[in-house]
User: What shape does this take?
Amino acid sequence: MAAEQTIKIALAGNPNSGKSTLFNILTGLNQKIGNFPGVTVDKKSGFAKINNTQIEFTDFPGSYSLNALSADEKVLPDVLADKNNPVHPDCVVYVADATNLRRSLFLCTQIMDTGIPLILVLNMIDLLEKSDEEIDVVKLSGELGIKIFTANARDKKGIEELKNSLTEPFEIPKKKILSSEITETDKAKKQRSETIERYKAIGEILKKVVSKKSVGLNSSLTKKLDNILTHRIFGFLIFFAVLFLVFQSIFSWSALPMEWIEQLFSSFSEWLLNTLPQGVLTELVVNGILAGISGVVVFIPQIALLFVFISILEDTGYMARVSFITDRLLRKFGLNGRSVIPLISGVACAVPAIMATRTIPNWKERIITIMVTPLMSCSARLPVYTLLISLVVPSEKVFGFLNVQGIALMVLYLIGFLAAILVALVLKFIIKARERSFFIMELPVYRSPRWSSVGLAVVEKVKTFVFEAGKVIVAISIILWALSSYAPGNRFQKIEEHFRAPEFAQQHTPEELEKLIATEKLEQSYAGIMGHALEPVIRPLGFDWKIGIALVTSFAAREVFVGTMATIYSVGDENNTLSIREKMQAEINPETGEKRYSTAVAFSLMIFYAFAMQCMSTIAIVYSETKSWKWPALQFIYMSALAYLSALVVYQVMK
Amino acid sequence: MKLSELKPGQTAVIKDFSDDDLSLRFLEMGCVPGEEILLERIAPLGDPIAIRVSGYSLCLRQSEAESIIISSVDRN
Assistant: This one.
């Protein structure tokens, strides 16, 4: 084999076989994520140089058989059958869970019988040693006619031998495991009889190579843990404790790093504004591009933290138990046991939550989870809620300890949750299933998390977010910047001239004047024009054009509402909520002569923010997760409609 | 009898399947006729269930368990 030639290796195996861990060990950080040609299934490939030969590894989705069911599982048989496919491998490295040899050998021998070179890796050999079985590896290698290596996550010795063998010439399996031809014309019947025959053949081989020892340890530990973790009371209590921990940590532990990131970016923007020559280009760089990048980077702490937890929960085998105990409940709403983590994380932020839906195997259940997760009240809604609640809800206590403002906030969170559940129920009947909803799933044995896998999973998720969703976020950020900093014709020039009149300079300090100009400019800008244009549409909700502008600008992110209000009311410092509140409270509706922000308007606005899809990052991540604009578009439409109608009802009933 | 009628701790042998779509999936997961299975546990809300087959734990919904026809094994 020539040294400059790249050898293509496919990694295949059952789910939970440790295939991805082996992939990480073989390739380290030298990985990239793409698509399998022609299908929207994620392809992870990695590179390594072994004995001066360049090797490209492709990690295929875990599956149990070549008889394809889902899009993920179809990839392997399709690629194996197509010699011209760019990822068609020179050799398959098949990873088998040594403690589950019989089932593992099913797919393994199916692949061998296609006539492709195959190397078998018996993984988790350390767990096998603790179990009641013993495998005669040499004999098995002879029976199957292939090379076999043993490996476990901790000991790298077997892996070194495996690596070296990859640069030696590959051998096509000498014999077929399923030799007898089955004469059956019906495809499904043929697959069934083949499956039974194949298991028979595997059974014959295993009789010769597997011997029983004394009783095992690990499965009894799993049994004991399951007695507690799937217990009707403790099971749920522990699950709630885990959820609480996850929720708390993404909510509170990420607050400080997020603050640092924001500070870093704001001082950097300030420095740029002072250093670069004044002009459109500087404005674009600072308020458009840099603001967008900051909006991307600020999510990294939450995404990283959430995926540390999710990887640990997945890796230990606990996630499968969560599905096991919650499936009955969630199935009624078209969801899956694995929808729980995304929904709860949605309370912190919908972006990592939607990325977490990857663990839901059924397509329909995953789409429903993605569609409803943004209804959970995320942390970006909090500043909007606090401002509006403090405006209209008195800070009194009922029953001596319950704060009314606190109750109002809790009710808003509850409304978000109920909406998510109800919309899921509706979608269950609307969205057509691509595949039948199965719940035939392995409950893997518990094991301690492999920290390197956890770390790599976190890096991968952060990279996906930054590069996939990041593009869209920066683009929308630039558009929004342009909308609020440009006006048709010479409107801005006129404003500048108007305020340059001497009487303004006498009445106002330069700072106040600056704020007045900013307010005037925002009103005259394209965003301002859009706000005015929106007014007839949003008047039935009790909103005026000022709120209209805030709706446009806060499309970037909900919390921008507060900042826009600050500009509209010429309050320079957007962190000074008190003065924004005072200004908003003093605002009089010229038509009614009463307060503009009546209770009805404030609640209508809060309900609007509870349901509306005012978040470009969520739209971007839904696009990158579903790989189609259809779902984010539908989501935007249904959430806007829901927000509009609910706010309409609230305002018309309360006014 | 059906797998859905088995009680926790009881063992049985797989006989046949009544659902063609599901049967292939079960077969591939090692649930072949003649294989002994043990009902390990039932989820707290009564559904799904977990069985031990071919040396590992498999969970499935009650509705799916209805499609597996078994004959119970008495061992006391």
In short: The longest strand of chain B covers residues 11-17. Residues 45 and 62 of chain B are 11 Å apart (CA to CA). Chain B touches chain A at residues 20-30, 32-33, 40-41, 43-48, 50, 54-61, 64 (CB under 8 Å). Chain B has a mean pLDDT of 89.
